[in-house]
Amino acid sequence: MKNMQSQRTAAPIWGFVVLMATISVTGCISNSSNVSVSPDEAATVLRPGDAVEITRKDKTVVHLKVKEIDDTEVYGSNQMSMFGRIKETIPLSDVASIKLYKKGEGYDIDQTIEAWSYLLILWPFFVF
Fold this sequence. Notes:
Layout: H1 2-25, E1 30-37, H2 42-45, E2 51-56, E3 61-69, E4 73-78, E5 86-91, E6 95-106, H3 109-127
Antiparallel strand pairs: 1-6, 2-3, 2-6, 3-4, 4-5
């Protein structure tokens, strides 16, 4: 009888350990970096879809998702606006510095949430 009680208490502990190991393995394991880009080379380095942080000469900071870029200006949507994306055009002559956010290889939080959603939806089909 005493042996059965120890097996009953061990099962939830092992279940918890397996759950924590699974969360750790499928967690957010992506890396990203910031690359400084000078305004002179922005037209050749930046591409549509890039996320950038632009510091203007008056020290204001703008977070943009680049839509278009040419030799004179950057056009994109402001990522920090509260009520939707505000379109903004910034002349390169007004730019002090640009940080380009580069996403590295690996999983990101969206993929982790998606995997866990599938797991939560499909687990009854494998258990029962």
